[in-house]
Design goal:
Layout lengths: L1 H12 L9 E5 L4 H13 L5 E4 L12 H7 L4 E5 L8 H8 L3 E4 L5 H4 L8 H15 L4 E5 L5 E5 L19 E3 L4 E4 L7 E6 L2 E2 L7 E6 L2 E6 L2 H8 L8 E7 L10 H4 L6 E6 L13 E6 L3 E4 L2 E4 L7
Parallel strand pairs: 1-2, 1-3, 3-4, 4-7
Antiparallel strand pairs: 5-6, 5-16, 6-9, 8-13, 9-11, 10-15, 11-12, 13-14, 14-15, 16-17
Helix pairs in contact: 1-2
Length: about 325
Amino acid sequence: MPLEEGAASVLRTSAGLKVGEKVLIVADPERMGVGRAFFYAAAALGCDPVLSLIRTREAPGREPPDLLSAAMLDADVVLLATVHSMTHTHARRAANRAGARVVSMPGASEEDLEGGALTADHGVLVQTMRRLQRRLRGADEVHIVTPAGTDVTLSTRGRDWNFSDTGVATRKGDVTTLPAGEIFVSPVEGTAEGRLVADAFFHESLHTPATVLLKEGHATKVTGAEAAVLEMNRGGKEGRNVAKLGVGLNPRARAAASLPEAEKALGAVHVVFGDSVPYGGKVACGVRVDAILTGATVEVDDAPIVEKGKLPP
Protein backbone atom coordinates (compact mmCIF):
# COMPACT_ATOMS: atom_id res chain seq x y z
CA MET A 1 0.00 0.00 0.00
CA PRO A 2 1.36 3.48 -0.87
CA LEU A 3 0.88 4.83 2.67
CA GLU A 4 2.86 2.02 4.24
CA GLU A 5 5.53 2.22 1.55
CA GLY A 6 6.00 5.91 2.34
CA ALA A 7 6.15 5.18 6.06
CA ALA A 8 8.70 2.42 5.44
CA SER A 9 10.85 4.89 3.48
CA VAL A 10 10.86 7.28 6.47
CA LEU A 11 11.71 4.44 8.85
CA ARG A 12 14.62 3.25 6.70
CA THR A 13 16.15 6.50 5.44
CA SER A 14 15.27 8.94 8.24
CA ALA A 15 15.23 6.81 11.40
CA GLY A 16 17.61 4.06 10.19
CA LEU A 17 15.31 1.46 11.74
CA LYS A 18 16.83 -1.92 12.58
CA VAL A 19 15.08 -5.27 13.05
CA GLY A 20 13.89 -5.81 16.60
CA GLU A 21 14.14 -2.20 17.77
CA LYS A 22 11.53 -0.80 20.16
CA VAL A 23 9.35 1.61 18.17
CA LEU A 24 6.82 4.00 19.73
CA ILE A 25 4.45 5.88 17.42
CA VAL A 26 2.50 8.83 18.85
CA ALA A 27 -0.56 10.10 16.98
CA ASP A 28 -3.64 12.18 17.70
CA PRO A 29 -7.09 11.53 16.21
CA GLU A 30 -6.53 13.80 13.18
CA ARG A 31 -3.32 11.92 12.28
CA MET A 32 -4.40 8.39 13.14
CA GLY A 33 -4.13 7.27 9.49
CA VAL A 34 -0.49 8.37 9.45
CA GLY A 35 0.13 6.64 12.77
CA ARG A 36 -1.38 3.37 11.53
CA ALA A 37 0.79 3.48 8.39
CA PHE A 38 3.92 3.73 10.56
CA PHE A 39 2.65 0.94 12.82
CA TYR A 40 2.18 -1.53 9.97
CA ALA A 41 5.39 -0.44 8.22
CA ALA A 42 7.46 -0.91 11.40
CA ALA A 43 5.91 -4.35 11.93
CA ALA A 44 6.73 -5.33 8.33
CA LEU A 45 10.35 -4.23 8.91
CA GLY A 46 10.75 -6.71 11.76
CA CYS A 47 9.77 -4.70 14.82
CA ASP A 48 6.98 -5.03 17.41
CA PRO A 49 5.75 -1.42 17.44
CA VAL A 50 3.39 0.36 19.83
CA LEU A 51 0.91 2.94 18.51
CA SER A 52 -0.28 5.44 21.13
CA LEU A 53 -3.34 7.63 20.49
CA ILE A 54 -3.41 10.84 22.53
CA ARG A 55 -5.73 13.81 22.74
CA THR A 56 -4.83 16.57 20.31
CA ARG A 57 -2.69 19.18 22.06
CA GLU A 58 -3.95 22.78 22.09
CA ALA A 59 -0.77 24.29 20.59
CA PRO A 60 2.82 23.44 19.63
CA GLY A 61 5.15 22.56 22.48
CA ARG A 62 2.49 21.13 24.79
CA GLU A 63 3.63 18.05 26.71
CA PRO A 64 2.26 14.53 26.12
CA PRO A 65 0.59 12.61 28.99
CA ASP A 66 3.01 11.54 31.75
CA LEU A 67 2.36 7.88 30.97
CA LEU A 68 3.53 8.40 27.40
CA SER A 69 6.54 10.49 28.45
CA ALA A 70 7.70 7.53 30.53
CA ALA A 71 7.26 5.15 27.58
CA MET A 72 9.32 7.42 25.33
CA LEU A 73 12.30 6.93 27.66
CA ASP A 74 12.37 3.21 26.91
CA ALA A 75 12.05 3.42 23.10
CA ASP A 76 14.78 3.10 20.49
CA VAL A 77 12.76 5.11 17.96
CA VAL A 78 9.96 7.59 18.66
CA LEU A 79 7.77 8.86 15.82
CA LEU A 80 5.67 11.95 16.58
CA ALA A 81 2.79 12.14 14.07
CA THR A 82 0.67 14.89 15.60
CA VAL A 83 -1.13 18.02 14.43
CA HIS A 84 0.98 20.33 16.61
CA SER A 85 4.72 19.98 16.97
CA MET A 86 6.01 18.15 20.03
CA THR A 87 9.64 18.78 19.07
CA HIS A 88 10.15 21.43 21.74
CA THR A 89 8.87 19.48 24.73
CA HIS A 90 10.58 18.23 27.88
CA ALA A 91 9.39 14.72 27.01
CA ARG A 92 11.18 14.76 23.66
CA ARG A 93 14.41 16.11 25.15
CA ALA A 94 14.30 13.51 27.92
CA ALA A 95 13.77 10.72 25.37
CA ASN A 96 16.82 11.90 23.44
CA ARG A 97 18.92 12.02 26.60
CA ALA A 98 17.84 8.44 27.27
CA GLY A 99 19.14 7.47 23.81
CA ALA A 100 15.97 7.41 21.70
CA ARG A 101 16.04 8.57 18.10
CA VAL A 102 13.12 10.95 17.55
CA VAL A 103 11.47 11.81 14.23
CA SER A 104 8.96 14.64 14.62
CA MET A 105 6.40 15.15 11.83
CA PRO A 106 4.03 17.94 12.92
CA GLY A 107 1.04 18.21 10.61
CA ALA A 108 2.13 15.29 8.42
CA SER A 109 -0.73 14.08 6.22
CA GLU A 110 -1.51 10.82 4.47
CA GLU A 111 -0.79 12.64 1.20
CA ASP A 112 2.74 13.37 2.48
CA LEU A 113 3.30 9.60 2.75
CA GLU A 114 1.84 8.90 -0.69
CA GLY A 115 4.70 10.33 -2.72
CA GLY A 116 5.01 13.64 -0.85
CA ALA A 117 7.90 15.29 0.96
CA LEU A 118 8.27 12.63 3.64
CA THR A 119 9.06 9.92 1.07
CA ALA A 120 12.32 11.51 -0.07
CA ASP A 121 15.44 9.38 0.36
CA HIS A 122 17.02 11.22 3.26
CA GLY A 123 20.36 9.53 2.68
CA VAL A 124 20.46 11.10 -0.77
CA LEU A 125 19.53 14.49 0.73
CA VAL A 126 22.53 14.20 3.06
CA GLN A 127 24.82 13.46 0.12
CA THR A 128 23.48 16.47 -1.79
CA MET A 129 24.03 18.72 1.22
CA ARG A 130 27.57 17.46 1.75
CA ARG A 131 28.47 18.28 -1.85
CA LEU A 132 27.03 21.76 -1.49
CA GLN A 133 28.67 22.27 1.89
CA ARG A 134 32.08 21.90 0.27
CA ARG A 135 31.14 24.31 -2.52
CA LEU A 136 29.59 26.95 -0.29
CA ARG A 137 32.43 27.17 2.21
CA GLY A 138 33.73 30.72 1.94
CA ALA A 139 31.03 31.74 -0.58
CA ASP A 140 30.61 35.43 -1.30
CA GLU A 141 27.93 36.56 -3.79
CA VAL A 142 24.57 34.91 -4.43
CA HIS A 143 22.46 35.64 -7.52
CA ILE A 144 18.81 34.49 -7.66
CA VAL A 145 16.65 34.43 -10.79
CA THR A 146 13.14 32.98 -11.25
CA PRO A 147 10.74 32.67 -14.22
CA ALA A 148 8.31 35.00 -12.40
CA GLY A 149 10.82 37.87 -12.61
CA THR A 150 13.09 37.69 -9.56
CA ASP A 151 16.59 39.07 -10.09
CA VAL A 152 18.37 39.56 -6.76
CA THR A 153 21.99 39.68 -5.64
CA LEU A 154 23.25 39.57 -2.06
CA SER A 155 26.41 38.78 -0.11
CA THR A 156 27.04 35.92 2.32
CA ARG A 157 30.71 36.75 2.88
CA GLY A 158 31.76 35.63 6.36
CA ARG A 159 28.41 33.97 7.04
CA ASP A 160 28.03 30.22 7.66
CA TRP A 161 25.43 28.27 5.71
CA ASN A 162 23.34 25.85 7.79
CA PHE A 163 23.15 22.23 6.58
CA SER A 164 21.45 20.63 9.60
CA ASP A 165 18.01 20.07 8.00
CA THR A 166 18.83 16.58 6.70
CA GLY A 167 15.85 14.67 8.06
CA VAL A 168 18.23 12.00 9.40
CA ALA A 169 18.14 10.66 12.97
CA THR A 170 20.15 7.45 12.73
CA ARG A 171 22.44 7.86 15.74
CA LYS A 172 21.54 7.34 19.39
CA GLY A 173 19.97 10.49 20.83
CA ASP A 174 19.35 12.14 17.43
CA VAL A 175 16.26 14.24 16.69
CA THR A 176 14.99 15.51 13.35
CA THR A 177 11.88 17.20 11.98
CA LEU A 178 10.20 16.24 8.72
CA PRO A 179 9.74 17.37 6.02
CA ALA A 180 13.43 18.19 5.57
CA GLY A 181 15.73 19.48 2.87
CA GLU A 182 16.50 23.21 3.18
CA ILE A 183 19.91 24.83 3.45
CA PHE A 184 20.01 28.44 4.60
CA VAL A 185 22.15 31.44 5.46
CA SER A 186 21.65 34.94 6.83
CA PRO A 187 22.79 37.42 4.15
CA VAL A 188 25.12 40.21 5.17
CA GLU A 189 23.03 43.16 6.30
CA GLY A 190 22.63 45.91 3.72
CA THR A 191 23.70 43.82 0.69
CA ALA A 192 20.46 42.52 -0.89
CA GLU A 193 19.61 44.38 -4.10
CA GLY A 194 17.14 43.86 -6.94
CA ARG A 195 13.62 42.67 -7.64
CA LEU A 196 12.06 39.74 -5.77
CA VAL A 197 8.82 38.14 -7.02
CA ALA A 198 7.10 35.80 -4.55
CA ASP A 199 4.82 33.51 -6.54
CA ALA A 200 3.78 30.85 -4.00
CA PHE A 201 3.69 32.41 -0.54
CA PHE A 202 4.20 35.78 1.13
CA HIS A 203 3.01 35.69 4.73
CA GLU A 204 0.04 33.77 3.28
CA SER A 205 -0.65 31.67 0.20
CA LEU A 206 -0.69 33.80 -2.95
CA HIS A 207 -3.22 33.73 -5.78
CA THR A 208 -1.17 36.22 -7.80
CA PRO A 209 2.56 37.05 -7.49
CA ALA A 210 3.79 39.84 -5.23
CA THR A 211 6.78 42.04 -6.08
CA VAL A 212 9.37 43.41 -3.66
CA LEU A 213 12.01 45.96 -4.56
CA LEU A 214 15.18 45.49 -2.49
CA LYS A 215 17.72 48.19 -1.79
CA GLU A 216 20.57 48.14 0.71
CA GLY A 217 19.26 44.95 2.29
CA HIS A 218 15.68 46.09 2.85
CA ALA A 219 12.31 45.88 1.10
CA THR A 220 11.69 49.44 -0.07
CA LYS A 221 8.47 48.84 -2.02
CA VAL A 222 6.04 45.92 -1.93
CA THR A 223 3.25 45.39 -4.45
CA GLY A 224 0.48 42.82 -4.09
CA ALA A 225 0.84 41.50 -0.51
CA GLU A 226 -0.96 43.75 1.96
CA ALA A 227 -0.84 41.30 4.87
CA ALA A 228 2.92 40.90 4.46
CA VAL A 229 3.41 44.67 4.41
CA LEU A 230 1.37 45.15 7.58
CA GLU A 231 3.38 42.49 9.38
CA MET A 232 6.75 43.87 8.21
CA ASN A 233 5.75 47.36 9.30
CA ARG A 234 5.31 46.11 12.87
CA GLY A 235 9.10 45.88 13.06
CA GLY A 236 9.79 49.35 11.63
CA LYS A 237 12.61 49.55 9.11
CA GLU A 238 14.20 46.34 10.38
CA GLY A 239 10.94 44.50 9.78
CA ARG A 240 11.88 44.85 6.10
CA ASN A 241 15.41 43.49 6.58
CA VAL A 242 16.37 40.52 4.38
CA ALA A 243 17.01 38.10 7.24
CA LYS A 244 17.32 34.65 5.70
CA LEU A 245 17.93 33.00 2.35
CA GLY A 246 16.91 29.34 2.15
CA VAL A 247 17.27 26.97 -0.81
CA GLY A 248 15.06 23.89 -1.02
CA LEU A 249 16.60 20.56 -2.07
CA ASN A 250 13.83 17.98 -1.45
CA PRO A 251 12.68 16.57 -4.83
CA ARG A 252 9.46 15.16 -3.31
CA ALA A 253 8.37 18.37 -1.55
CA ARG A 254 5.71 20.55 -3.20
CA ALA A 255 6.22 24.30 -3.49
CA ALA A 256 2.43 24.78 -3.58
CA ALA A 257 1.99 23.07 -0.20
CA SER A 258 1.89 24.78 3.19
CA LEU A 259 5.00 26.67 4.33
CA PRO A 260 6.77 23.89 6.28
CA GLU A 261 6.86 21.77 3.11
CA ALA A 262 7.07 24.53 0.48
CA GLU A 263 10.36 25.89 1.81
CA LYS A 264 11.97 22.45 1.37
CA ALA A 265 10.91 21.94 -2.27
CA LEU A 266 13.68 21.56 -4.82
CA GLY A 267 13.96 24.84 -6.71
CA ALA A 268 12.13 26.84 -4.06
CA VAL A 269 13.85 29.86 -2.54
CA HIS A 270 12.74 30.88 0.95
CA VAL A 271 13.32 34.52 1.90
CA VAL A 272 12.53 35.75 5.41
CA PHE A 273 12.18 39.43 6.31
CA GLY A 274 12.73 40.78 9.81
CA ASP A 275 14.65 38.96 12.56
CA SER A 276 17.96 37.52 11.39
CA VAL A 277 19.48 36.52 14.74
CA PRO A 278 17.99 32.97 14.61
CA TYR A 279 19.84 32.39 11.30
CA GLY A 280 23.20 33.92 12.20
CA GLY A 281 22.53 37.59 11.48
CA LYS A 282 22.46 40.70 13.67
CA VAL A 283 18.89 42.05 13.44
CA ALA A 284 16.29 41.51 16.19
CA CYS A 285 12.95 43.23 15.70
CA GLY A 286 10.26 40.76 16.72
CA VAL A 287 8.99 40.20 13.18
CA ARG A 288 9.25 37.29 10.74
CA VAL A 289 7.65 37.39 7.29
CA ASP A 290 8.19 34.45 4.92
CA ALA A 291 8.22 34.50 1.11
CA ILE A 292 8.51 31.55 -1.27
CA LEU A 293 9.75 31.78 -4.87
CA THR A 294 9.65 28.77 -7.20
CA GLY A 295 11.59 27.37 -10.16
CA ALA A 296 14.69 29.29 -9.14
CA THR A 297 18.20 29.41 -10.48
CA VAL A 298 20.62 30.12 -7.63
CA GLU A 299 24.21 30.98 -8.53
CA VAL A 300 26.91 31.26 -5.88
CA ASP A 301 30.04 33.04 -7.05
CA ASP A 302 28.82 32.55 -10.67
CA ALA A 303 28.33 28.76 -10.36
CA PRO A 304 24.77 27.36 -10.13
CA ILE A 305 23.80 25.22 -7.14
CA VAL A 306 20.21 25.00 -8.43
CA GLU A 307 19.32 25.61 -12.07
CA LYS A 308 15.74 26.28 -13.18
CA GLY A 309 14.41 24.36 -10.22
CA LYS A 310 16.72 21.35 -10.66
CA LEU A 311 20.10 20.21 -9.41
CA PRO A 312 22.76 20.73 -12.06
CA PRO A 313 24.66 17.61 -13.22
